[in-house]
Predict the structure.
Amino acid sequence: MIIRFLLCKMFDVKEIDVVMMKSRKQNLVDARRLYVYYLLRFKRVKHAHIKKYVKGMHHSTSIYQYKVFENELDVCRFTKQRLITLLYYGDHPEWEYLKLKMRYPKEVLYDIDYRKTYQDIINYLK
């Protein structure tokens, strides 16, 4: 999944750490929180089914993670920037709406150099 790959690049973590609830390091928690928010908000995954995407996450934990991320979006500009970056590189159509709503220029986005690595993975899977 491209979103998990982007999260790994953005937060400098391994993909297995994003989908497993074994560590509480700050960068892993932030990556997991953004991943849960993306799944719930943009992919319309129900809280009861979040355990299929994040091993060991209970539905009450996903509700808590979603609420915390919503609060961070209101307070922290850096969190908004991360969300917009994830949506932009993930080719999600809502990034343009959020960019205009939050008034972020495109230059503010993280510069993630993932295309070469991602193409290598796609070629390997073919």
The domain at 2-125 is CATH 1.10.1750.10 (Chromosomal Replication Initiator Protein Dnaa; Chain: A;). The helical segments are 2-11, 15-19, 26-41, 59-75, 77-89, 94-102, 115-125. Residues 93 and 115 are 19 Å apart (CA to CA). Residues 103-108 have pLDDT under 50 and may be disordered.
